[in-house]
Write a structure and sequence with these properties.
Helices cover 51% and strands 12% of the residues. α1 runs antiparallel to α2. It is α/β, with parallel strands linked by helices and 112 residues long. The strands form two sheets. It has a two-stranded parallel sheet with strand order 1-2. The protein has a two-stranded parallel ribbon with strand order 3-4. The longest helix is centred in the N-terminal third of the chain and has 14 residues. α5 links the parallel β3 and β4.
Length: 112
């Protein structure tokens, strides 16, 4: 995995920075290191992403994802990124709905 590029969204970056700010005494140093990581593609949230995310929420209300998760999926689609690593149960259920989405749970034990 170290050789693979990392894809994230500006919204998720902000989540990490907020978490560090509220949970760690060295948040400024850690945030600067995190935001300066090499090999990271960051997708800004666009109006098209919001429209696509709205469609995902409308089309898959039974899956249990929220707006932030829907915007991540929309940005992934725009950038042609199919591999998602998450422990989020709603996003894992979306893999059953979206043919292009491949979800890996990094916390789950192998074989589960």
């Amino acid at each position: 995995m170290e050789d693979e590029p990392l894809f994230t969204t500006s919204v998720l970056q902000m989540e990490v920075v907020h978490y560090l700010h509220t949970q760690h005494p060295e948040s400024e140093t850690l945030s600067t290191r995190f935001l300066g990581l090499d090999g990271v593609s960051v997708a800004d949230l666009t109006r098209t992403d919001v429209e696509e995310a709205s469609a995902l929420l409308r089309d898959y209300p039974h899956v249990g994802i929220g707006g932030r998760d829907a915007t991540v999926l929309a940005a992934m689609q725009r950038y042609d990124v199919s591999q998602l690593w998450t422990h989020d149960s709603g996003l894992k259920r979306m893999a059953d709905e979206l043919e292009w989405l491949d979800v890996t749970d990094p916390v789950e034990e192998p074989g589960q």
